[in-house]
Amino acid sequence: RQMIEETKKLVEARFTTKGGYEHNAE
Q: How far apart are CA 2 and CA 26, in angstroms?
C-alpha cells in the first residue's frame, strides 16, 4: 500500500512537471 502511494506521488510529480502544471504541484 505504501509503495502505491509513493508511486502515485512520483507519477503525479512527473506528470505535473512534464505537463507544465507546476502550479498544481505543491
A: 20
